[in-house]
Design a protein that fits this description.
By secondary structure, the protein is an alpha+beta fold. Helix content is 35%, strand content 18%.
Length: 715
């Protein structure tokens, strides 16, 4: 009996502790915008509390975090009671969970047929926009789901929020009105129209905002969601306007009730009446179509200019929604399928310092391995010495890491609240960790560099960059082989035995590759190449064939592959198109370079200085002697015509033969420019299979739409 009593008290104590901990994290996340644990860790706490409350339902109270939506109105704003609660969604983390939810819906619906609507789950801040007489009269945050904060002035600074509801953009009926109100074309009897949406910060604005905050030595935002939430809680609307927020709308209510008999019709009505609705919404006839949509966007999420953390799935028919009902916290007819976490917390064990192709020394955090976005992460970047100091990292710190479309995650914040006193400071090195040359930090730059032109690390990274897929495409030249090619070799006799000197030490031979140009003389050292570890005849011959093919990669890829500071793919294509040959580019003045569209003075100076160095001049000469093509030419050798000069293209869908990078290169080589979005300035839309919303937008604007075959023909 005593043991049973102890267990009961143990469960009671754990439930009380979990509630206190979750409520504390709610306050940090929703009110202060300063979370100290990841979403996955928070979900684990909530799941544990739910499990314990299921075992002891007598302990469930109205103020338990499981019984209400998290979040509290911020001080300083008027409170507003939502006519219909803004409930949160239950989460699913696997396809099996999603299918189980669908089966529950089917069972509760009693066998009645229904379909689904899938929408991207925007990682932002929920908001209600309330209209009377067609005019915006109030904007309210979700708050705790029942009471929100009135932020009307702030909402009006968001350009995508209509101040007045537009008339329907097309003639005809938008769909059959549900039983709860008038037809969609006639809203005269509706006293209040409420549109709910998700306020978010576009990725490019988020990155620019953090750059500006770094320059002002202000704390950086951990993610776009925190930046958006922080903006909406500003009392000064001018500050909100500077943040350039955006919104996607996802729910429509007429006098507090669903506007139509299906959710998808509500989305269509909003889109036709001036509200920004996500273009990737989709009606799905079966759960299999829903699963396909989730898997598709799990792969494509990095193509977007805003953060999504999953997919929202809803039963489409409002009558079925009413039958399924809601719990005190979440509707049973909707669920959020969450993608693998892209942000996590872990412990920082050490810092190592990597030297890049330009000599930049980058501090890299060595982490306790943690799961992030479906992979195990043990390293994360901290960019440079200034960023390392700004973060204030110490050995054994707990840190947040994030992966947002980049291969290497980055450390974004130190969780100082978890320090124990055992942490120790790091000291950024004064000398190159590879060649021991004294490091320098040029005035006005954040990056510390190794100035030694012969630093082995710079050669290694330069070779890998030169051989990369977007440069010269020498795919057989990986990290392990590059290390062997750039390292001194042991001399061997004809029988393969190590040859020793007079002192008994093995005789050393210089590396096979001491310059990028040495790649094109490797054929002369084929036997030595074959003798390298894990090479052999076949691998060596495949590598030599790829090196030979790379000679035809083209001028833009060659310029990019040279690794000139500040010259990325886009800049390389621009200057290749402008000059047409390496000879003309190498003799251009800094002034001439700076006058090219999209090339500023800093980039121009970097290009000019690169070509002034004698070792770079020797490199270009050796590459030309090896047969590397130095001019813009067609496959047959004729000069490329600049037929697309001044024309703006947009690419969409999957093209039959060209990859997206190849299509862009084809257009830019002929003087054209490629944009990521359709506008009135677009001249051509190149459309492939599954073209999507860009095709619809181009049709609305009357833009010329061509396929791949037409592009190749006119180019």
């Amino acid at each position: 009996m005593a043991e049973k009593s102890r267990k009961v008290k143990s469960i009671e104590r754990e439930i009380a502790e979990l509630r206190r901990e979750i409520l504390d994290h709610d306050d940090r996340y929703y009110v202060l915008n300063e979370p100290i644990i990841s979403d996955a860790e928070y979900d684990a706490l909530m799941k544990r509390l739910q499990e314990l409350e299921e075992r002891r339902p007598d302990l469930i109270t109205d103020d338990s975090p499981t019984q209400r939506v998290s979040g509290q109105p911020a001080a300083g704003f008027e409170e507003y009671l939502h006519k219909r609660p803004m409930l949160s969604l239950d989460n699913s983390y696997s396809i099996d969970d999603l299918r189980d939810w669908a089966r529950r819906c089917e069972k509760l619906a009693g066998g009645r047929n229904f379909d689904y609507v899938t929408e991207l789950k925007i990682d932002g801040l929920s908001m209600s926009l309330i209209y009377e007489g067609g005019r915006l009269v109030r904007a309210v945050t979700r708050g705790d789901g029942f009471r929100g904060e009135v932020v009307s002035n702030n909402a009006r600074t968001i350009r995508s929020v209509p101040l007045r509801i537009k008339q329907e953009r097309e003639s005809g009926r938008a769909g059959e009105r549900g039983k709860k109100g008038p037809s969609p074309s006639d809203t005269s009897s509706v006293k209040e129209i409420e549109v709910r949406g998700e306020v978010f910060l576009p990725n490019e604005v988020f990155q620019q905002t953090n750059r500006e905050r770094a320059e002002q030595e202000l704390p950086l935002f951990a993610n776009p969601r925190n930046a958006a939430a922080g903006a909406m809680r500003q009392l000064d609307a001018k500050i909100v306007a500077e943040r350039r927020l955006d919104i996607f709308c996802y729910q429509l209510l007429f006098d507090g009730n669903p506007a139509f008999n299906s959710h998808f019709k509500s989305l269509e009505w909003m889109a036709k009446h001036g509200f920004k609705v996500n273009p990737h919404r989709r009606e799905c006839r079966s759960i299999d179509e829903v699963v396909a949509y989730c898997e598709e966007w799990g792969e494509k999420r990095d193509d977007l200019n805003y953060e999504i953390d999953g997919v929202v799935v809803k039963v489409n028919q409002v009558a079925i929604q009413d039958e399924l009902g809601s719990t005190s916290k979440s509707p049973r007819w909707a669920i959020a399928y969450k993608f693998p976490a892209r942000q996590a917390s872990t412990q920082l064990l050490d810092v190592i310092y990597q030297v890049g192709r330009t000599g930049a020394v980058t501090p890299v955090a060595v982490l306790e391995p943690v799961q992030l976005a479906g992979t195990t992460v043990s390293r994360a970047s901290m960019h440079n010495a200034d960023e390392m100091r700004r973060l204030g990292v110490m050995r054994l710190d707990w840190v947040f890491i994030e992966k947002s479309g980049e291969i290497i995650p980055q450390v974004i914040k130190v969780i100082t609240e978890r320090r124990t006193g055992k942490e120790t400071e790091f000291k950024f090195p004064a000398h190159c960790p590879v060649c021991e040359t004294k490091l320098v930090k040029p005035e006005g730059e954040a990056v510390t560099r190794c100035p030694n032109p012969d630093c082995p690390a710079k050669l290694r990274e330069g070779l890998l960059h030169f051989a990369a897929r977007r440069a010269m495409r020498i795919e057989g030249l990986g990290v392990a082989l590059t290390d062997q090619l750039t390292s001194p070799r042991v001399k061997r006799d004809k029988k393969g035995q190590v040859v020793s000197g007079e002192n008994g030490e093995p005789l050393q031979l210089p590396p096979l590759v001491r310059s990028i140009a040495d790649l094109y003389t490797l054929a002369e050292n084929r036997d030595e190449l074959i003798a390298l570890e894990r090479m052999g005849t076949k691998s060596a011959d495949n590598l030599l064939a790829q090196i030979e093919t790379s000679k035809e990669a083209g001028l833009a890829r060659l310029i990019y592959g040279l690794g000139i500071r500040h010259v990325g793919e886009r800049t390389a294509a621009i200057i290749a198109n402008h000059f047409g040959s390496m000879e003309r580019l190498s003799t251009a003045s800094a002034e001439e370079l700076s006058k090219i569209h999209e090339i500023g003075e800093v980039v121009a100076a970097s290009i000019y200085e690169w070509f002034q160095e004698r070792r770079h001049q020797r490199l270009i000469k050796r590459l030309a002697q090896a047969g590397v093509k130095m001019e813009m030419t067609r496959a047959g050798g004729e000069q490329v015509s600049r037929v697309f000069e001044g024309k703006l293209f947009v690419l969409t869908g999957t093209l039959p033969t060209l990859k997206r990078d190849d299509a862009r290169a084809f257009i830019e080589a002929r003087g054209g420019r490629v944009s990521g979005s359709v506008s009135k300035k677009t001249d051509f839309l190149v459309a492939g299979e599954e073209a999507g919303s860009k095709l619809t937008r181009a049709q609305e604007l009357g833009i010329s739409i061509i396929d791949e075959a037409t592009l190749l023909k006119i180019g």
